[in-house]
Design brief:
Layout: H1 2-17, H2 22-33, H3 38-44, H4 54-86, H5 107-121, E1 125-126, E2 132-134, H6 135-138, E3 158-159, E4 162-167, H7 174-182, E5 186-195, E6 207-217, H8 222-237, E7 243-247, E8 253-262, E9 279-288, H9 290-295, E10 304-311, H10 312-320, H11 333-336
Parallel strand pairs: 1-5
Antiparallel strand pairs: 2-4, 3-4, 5-6, 6-10, 7-8, 8-9, 9-10
The structure holds phenylalanine.
C-alpha cells in the first residue's frame, strides 16, 4: 500500500508538471482526484487494511492527497494569472475597492412627493388610480362622448382586442371615480403616469406624469382655484412665480383655463423648453363641468368645484432646470446623480 501510494504521488506530480493547458489540468484533476480518480480509489481501499496499519497509512494517504491537490492548485492559479494578464487584468492589491453606491430618488419622484406633501397639508386626499382605464372614466364621464373632436386632442393608446380600454391619457380619469367612491364635499389629488402616442422631442414624451387636483363642495369658485394654485407654486419654488391665466378649452371644465408660468429655465427670454415663448404651460384647469358632476351623481345646484391637471414632468424640469424631457428617461447617471 505504502509503495503504491508513493508511486501514485510521483506519477501525479510528474504529470502535473507537464501540464500546458487548463483543459489538461482539468483532465489530470479528474484522473487523480475525481470521484473515481486513482487517488480517491486508493483512499477508499484504506478501510480494508488491518486495524494497526490504518492510522499510519491513513496519515500518509492524506498527506499525499494534500500535496497533489496543493500542487494542482498552484498550477491552476498560474494559468489563471496568465489568462488575466493576457486580458490586461493584472491583480493590483493596492487599487481601491469597488464602492457600493446608494441609490436615490428620481427628480420626478422628488417633485411628486413634494407636491403630495403640500396638498396633504391642505387636507387633500391622495389617490393613485389605474393606468389602464375604461373608455367611460377616461372620456365619456368627462363629457367627451365618442366621436367628440376632443378625443383627437389626446392621441390615445387603445388596448389591443379591447376597444373599450385605454392607457389613461390623463389623471382626469380619477375625477368621477373619486366622486363616486367618496362623494362630496371632496378634496383630492391623483398623481400618476399617463400615456399619449406622441413623437418624443425636448418637451414631449409618450409616458409622462401628471397630478390631478379636484375640489368639490358648496360655493367653490375660480377664486379658490387661483388661491390653491398660488400657494402650490409658491411652496414648490420657494418664491413668487409669475403666472398668467388664459382661456383654455377642455370638455370637462367650464370655464376652462390654461395657467402658464414664467419659464424658469431661461427666465422668460425664450428657450427650447418654452418653445421660445418665455411661458410654460403648467396647469390646465377650470371649474368642473356640470355634466361631470351629474355623471358622478351630484346635484349641480348644490355642488360646484374646480379641477386642474398639473404636469409633474414639466414642473420637475422647471424646478431643477432640466432642459430636455428625454433626460428624465435616459438612464444617464451623470444626469441622475445630480439630484
Ligand atoms: N386632463 C387634462 C389634460 O391632460 C388637463 C386638465 C385637468 C384640464 C383638469 C382641466 C382640468 O390635458
Amino acid at each position: 500500500m505504502e509503495s503504491h501510494l508513493k508511486q501514485l504521488k510521483d506519477k501525479a506530480l510528474e504529470e502535473i508538471k507537464k501540464i500546458t493547458s487548463s483543459e489538461e489540468l482539468k483532465k489530470i484533476e479528474t484522473k487523480y482526484l475525481g470521484r473515481k480518480g486513482e487517488l480517491t480509489e486508493a483512499l477508499k481501499k484504506l478501510k480494508d487494511l488491518a486495524v494497526e496499519e490504518k492510522p499510519k497509512m491513513g496519515q500518509l494517504a492524506n498527506e499525499i492527497k494534500l500535496e497533489v491537490e496543493g500542487f494542482l492548485n498552484k498550477v491552476k492559479f498560474e494559468f489563471q494569472e496568465r489568462t488575466e494578464e493576457k486580458a490586461g487584468h493584472v491583480l493590483d492589491i493596492t487599487l481601491p475597492g469597488i464602492k457600493k453606491s446608494v441609490g436615490h430618488l428620481h427628480p420626478i419622484t422628488l417633485i411628486q412627493q413634494q407636491v403630495v406633501e403640500i396638498f396633504s397639508k391642505m387636507g387633500f386626499l391622495v389617490w393613485e388610480g389605474p393606468e389602464v382605464e375604461s373608455d367611460y372614466y377616461n372620456f365619456k364621464s368627462l363629457n367627451i362622448p365618442e366621436s367628440h373632436p376632443a378625443r383627437d386632442m389626446q392621441d390615445t393608446f387603445y388596448l389591443k382586442d379591447h376597444a373599450d380600454w385605454v392607457m389613461r391619457t390623463h389623471t382626469s380619469n380619477q375625477q368621477v371615480w373619486a366622486l363616486e367612491k367618496y362623494g362630496a364635499p371632496l378634496r383630492a389629488i391623483f398623481p400618476g403616469r399617463v400615456f399619449r402616442s406622441e413623437a418624443t422631442d425636448a418637451s414631449h414624451a409618450a409616458p409622462f406624469y401628471q397630478l390631478e387636483g379636484l375640489m368639490v363642495g358648496k360655493d367653490i369658485s375660480v377664486a379658490n382655484l387661483i388661491a390653491v394654485m398660488r400657494s402650490l407654486l409658491k411652496e414648490v419654488f420657494k418664491r413668487d412665480v409669475k403666472v398668467r391665466l388664459r382661456p383654455g378649452y377642455f370638455p370637462f371644465v367650464e370655464p376652462g383655463f390654461e395657467l402658464d408660468m414664467n419659464c424658469l429655465i431661461c427666465g422668460g427670454e425664450g428657450c427650447k423648453v418654452c418653445k421660445f415663448g418665455g411661458w410654460v404651460e403648467t396647469m390646465p384647469c377650470g371649474l368642473v363641468h356640470p355634466q361631470v358632476l351629474e355623471y358622478a351623481g351630484l346635484d349641480t345646484k348644490e355642488y360646484s368645484g374646480f379641477a386642474f391637471g398639473l404636469g409633474l414632468t414639466r414642473l420637475a424640469m422647471m424646478k431643477y432646470g432640466i432642459d430636455d424631457v428625454r433626460l428624465n428617461f435616459s438612464d444617464d447617471l451623470r444626469f441622475l446623480e445630480q439630484f
